[in-house]
Amino acid sequence: MLKYLFAKNEDIPPGTTAIFFGFSSIIWFVIGTGIGSFNAAKLAFPDFVTGYEYFAFGKMRQVHVLAVILGWISMAFAMAMTYITPALGNTRLWSEKLGVWNVLIWNVGLSLALTLLWMGISSGREYSDIIWPIDLAIIFGVLFPLGANVWMTIVTRRTQGIYTTNWFFGTGIFMVIIVFLVGNSPEFFNLTGLSEAYMTWWFAHNVLGLWITPVAAAIAYYTVPKVTGNPLYSHRIGHLHFWSVVIFYSTPAAHHLMSAPLPEWLKSFASVEGVLILVPAIAFVSNLLLTMTGKWHMFVENVEIKFTITGVLLAIPLNMQGGFQQTRAINWYIHGTGWIVAHAHLALLGFSTFLEGAAVYYGIQTLLRRKLYSLTLANFHFWFLLIGFCTYWISMTIAGLIQGAGKIYEVPYIDVVIAEHPYMIARWVGGTMVFTGNVVWLYNMWMTARVGTEIPVGRLPHELAYER
Amino acid sequence: MAFREYKIGARMFGAALGGSMMITLYFPTSDIVLVGSTEWGLQKALSYGRIGGFSYEDPLMRGEGKPVTVTLDKDPATNQPIDPIHAYVYPPGVPFPSAINHPRTAGKVVAELSTTKGRINEADHQKGAVFVVAHAEAGGEVTAYIENASVTRNWNPQQVLDAAGDENSAYVGSGKIMFVREGCWWCHTLLPEQTQDWQVFGVPPRLGDFNSESPTAFGSDRKAPDLLHVGSRNSSKEWMMMHFFNPRLVQPHSIMPRFDYLWGKNDANGKPIDFDQWRAEYTKYAAGERVYPPEVPDYAPKSDIRYLMDFVLSLK
Which of B147, B170, B193 is a domain's end point? Predict the structure, then answer.
């Protein structure tokens, strides 16, 4: 990598940036889920590794969350953007050199940010826990360069229109920059009180709604037509999806604070807008499932489609929960319980991870021009992710319902803790399966890069048969 | 980018996102800034200091640069007995909360009273100051406001600290830093909900309870009891001490981590604490090989755990 930092832009092979981003994202996924599994063990067995300040639950919880969001998910996005955008524009990435620096700064910066968080140096604001000097570094040193590369690649494309995926990429990176700037303003300007509390959740909501959800969906808009060979079912529905994300997904932030003393009009408004999130969700899911027409055998036979369609299918329960759990009628029961933790993992580990996983599988094969090393290991990865995730999701949902019942029947809290214990163990088992699956994935991708069968010129990776 | 559609699209996008920002940022915040601070809001603002998370006065989050909350029953300037009162001592150099720096964050009425009657605009953080919460009638209602006691009563920070003594001083602001740093809010919330659980955890907060506080650290994922009013449920220092050192001393089923490392190296008498021995003895106790658990050491007067206890016990 070092040799490319100071090379001339033209001398850097196309795809270098994306390959580095891809492998970085897998490594961060291994790290993030490893810490997650460790944390889960501590919730099941509080005296597991005790007596070390730096292995305390409160010091590691946020490291897990931000390692998977900024390391795994966002870097996988960067990987997807830096190879899909040029592919769709029939051109190369605007600047590979900027891209290589982008990878380096991102990895170094994220390691630093997470080390500080691990020491407890935090702003105390959930999801925007990273302290403001590093937030500024993320905005201007990480997100903006990525944005510049994506926007300029779209501008210098050699095709006529702009495909759906690229609308989402271009606007997603733009919106996340705005969200970081605005959402961290309480730290920049020491805003206090309810404004601070509201902005914390404004940030958390919009990072998911204007970055993770649309960009993950954009990846699926590329993978499914590309691998199946079917054209996208409807560009109009794609438009509906895009515009309803911008309008409906950007407004319900206050529904995260339904039981806090925010102005009532704001909560009601957010709640109605929150139900309208179903518009982009249904548009997205139906559009992709209809694109699969006639190619459903690939759901079983092809790794990338298997991952993508699983993610798309998981978007159904995700949005059904998301649309309705925030209404007053339901929220009072499950607010602040494990149900929400389960839902958050459904969004990030269920829905979005499966879509990005497909992009990284497909991208690395395409860019390295090597066929996936082993189908068996990929299937192992898939099932460990899926079963591990489902174990986690179901056990946390049950734990959440127990907590909700404990809350309304005024059960002494410790009895709730005791009742949750078996589900905490299940959660840890699920999380550990995900982690194990990821270690195998890293090995599989590494071997693909080293010894995967070379793909002949003019062929695409999914056209070749798997060998192992 | 030659298509006309893209120009139209870009403008539509600007309008959509701008409209959304208008509704979700401008309207709510202009509504929230109208809220006047309650008495509790002022007490919290004054006892926490400028910021409860990372800040340039306390970059490593050791609880530095924070005010001290003291309880007085004598006027430190005249030595006359007074009704017990909380005073918030800002030694020289400790930055003020935004309720002092930008009085309007406490709401219009409170800001006016605090500047005219309370004379907070005469406070200077380089010289230090002492604040108290006072009451006055405004518009037919009794309203709490901030009084700059260093001007109105001639109290100076060091004098007040000496008059109160260590037992009447609470490091609440530094304790909030510990609360944030140690991640207590990943398990505990500071927000009894408006729907049901106030019957157990106490009144949910009101709109004006947070002015000038940052971060509010509501917490979202509750794996443990709400703490907003924990000091009224349980104010036993003894219990808290054992519970923080090892929660399973008092609650065998607890999943709360041990916070024994917050005791630091030495105990109250300056003697080194032998954690390894303690843990070994506790393991025996937990296995039923000892009748009594080992003693929890007393903490030093300026230790992380002291700060944290002061904060937790201030949550009434």
Answer: B170
d(CA A63, CA A120) in angstroms, rounded, equals: 10
- Domain of residue A95, residue span: 2-449+456-465
Q: Domain of B111?
A: 39-170
Confidence of residue B1 (pLDDT cuts 50, 70, 90): low
Are B9 and B45 members of one domain?
no
Q: How big is the A-B interface in CB pairs under 8 Å?
A: 225
Cα–Cα distances in Å, from B283 out to A47, A81, B5? 10, 53, 72
Cα–Cα distance measured from residue A15 to residue A181, given in angstroms and rounded to the nearest whole number: 30
B250 touches chain A (CB under 8 A): no
Q: pLDDT (tens digit, 9 = 90+) per residue, A144-166?
A: 999 999 999 999 999 988 999 99
- Tell me the CA end-to-end span of chain A in Å, nearest whole number: 30
CA distance B167 to B157: 17
Q: Which residues does chain A have within 8 Å of residue B28's beta carbon, measured at their own beta carbons?
A: 195, 198, 254, 262-263, 266
CATH code at position B183: 1.10.760.10
Nearest residue, CB atoms, A261 vs list B6, B199, B206: B206
| DSSP structure class, residue A94 | S
For chain B, positions 40-59, list CB contacts with chain A under 8 A.
41, 45, 50-54, 59
Residue owning tokens 């950007």: A250
pLDDT band at A467 (very low <50, low <70, confident <90, very high): confident
At B197 the pLDDT is 77
**pTM listed for this prediction:** 0.96
Pair B82, B123 in one domain: yes
CATH of the domain at A290: 1.20.210.10
Distance from chain centroid for Cα A329: 29
Contacts of A261 in chain B (CB under 8 A): 194, 204-207, 209
Packed helices A338-345 and A303-325: angle between N→C axes, nearest 10 degrees: 150
Residue (of B139, B132, B148) closest to B39 by Cα position: B132
Contact B230, B184 (CB under 8 A): no
Per the CB < 8 Å rule, is B182 touching A51?
A: no
Q: Which residues of chain A make contact with B21, given a CB cutoff of 8 A?
A: 182, 250
The confidence score (pLDDT) of residue B252 equals 93
Residue A180 · residue A216 · CB < 8 Å: no
CB-count exposure of residue B56 (10 Å: 0-12, 13-18, 19+): exposed
pLDDT at residue B2, as a whole number? 61
B251 contacts in A (CB within 8 Å)? 414
Q: What is the ipTM of this complex?
A: 0.94
Is the pLDDT confidence value at B66 over 90? yes
- Count of alpha carbons within 13 Å of A436, Cβ hemisphere only? 14
Same domain flag for B25 and B48: no
Structure tokens at A194: 């309810």
Identify the DSSP state of B205: P
Looking at the structure of chain A, the number of domains it has is 1
CB atoms within 10 A of CB B288: 7
